[in-house]
Amino acid sequence: MSPDRELPSVLVLHNRYRSQGGEERAATEQVALLRDRGHTVKLLERPSESGGSGRLRAGAGMLRGGLAPGEVSDAVREIDADVVHAHNTVPLLGPRALAAARDAGARVVMHLHNYRLVCAIGIAYRDGTPCTRCQGRNTWPGARLRCRGNVGEALTYAAGIALQQRPMLEAVDRFVLTSEGSVRMLAQLGLPLGDYDVIPNFLPDSAFAERSAADSGQYALYAGRLAEEKGVDTAIEAAKRAGVPLAIAGEGPDEPRLRRLAVGDADVRFLGQLDAAALTAAREGAAVAVVPSRWHEPHPYAVSGPMAAGLPVLASEIGGLPEMVGPDATVEPTDAGAWAEALGELWDDPKLRRERGEAALARARERFGEDGYYERMMACYRTALA
Questions:
Q1: d(CA 317, CA 302)
Q2: Contact, 190 vs 117, CB < 8 A?
Q3: Of 129, 153, 171, 327, which sees the most CB atoms within 10 A?
Q4: Distance CA 325, CA 356 (A)
């Protein structure tokens, strides 16, 4: 870092997904926070395009380790970046982008929000359970099982990960992981991770409620992607057994099956995909939030968001979820009876809901606040620069 500059300048890299998710939010909110704190910062994004030409370009990026790395080195020089902070790099950025950043004089920090350095689909989940078949650079199981959905794409991603994993690890000065749970899962996947810091994702100050209103809530709330690994079917069954109304916010490939499960005596409403304002309103009317995931989620906003809203959160005892909500708020992922019991206990006792909502809000302020995140990230940058 230049001796006449107090704050490091930062180039943030991110390859956007075809559908917006938590990583897009993490990258954009990080940029906003750094700017608010006085840093020179630039966001360089690449789109993941659908369709024939987009898929061909993605395949080329996977196998070559990224495309057009000169764009990254030009951006480093444009703002005289001290740190290049990468989020998702697959498939169009890759290790070539990070190597170009280092060649241009920046240090590289890489944020791992999932398991994509080993797993072609990023979630290390298959056939109803967490999956560790792929190990390190041995990605043949993902190709053989066609985890990407078709033979061509599965082979391309398996080969790309195997070819580019080592150059990626060599191009990074320091990693950021969002939970100890993700550290453990990466170890199970055989990734020889180098130096890293565990820094949970933050929420803006405006996301925190003044107090909990969970005692007046009218329903349990699930908000997230409707996919099999999210375990929403467990939430539907548990709500049915406990006699608790359930509101489901989100869209995804599992929605038709979930709607069929909800037919009958279950009090279930599907709210569709909500924008930020509508999601805030849904949380304000809820009594409890449920996150029944079956994969090792590192640090989802589906947990931190309702905690900051003052809702008690019941989450699966898997991945990074227990360290987010605390051990007393976790349930075995697929045990619908245990979920029904935990949900019923809160539903039947408004005072308990309020107490646990206040505790969740205090825990969220302590763990997911702006100031703590910024201090930890600056320490990470200083270590990388040193």
A1: 15
A2: no
A3: 171
A4: 10
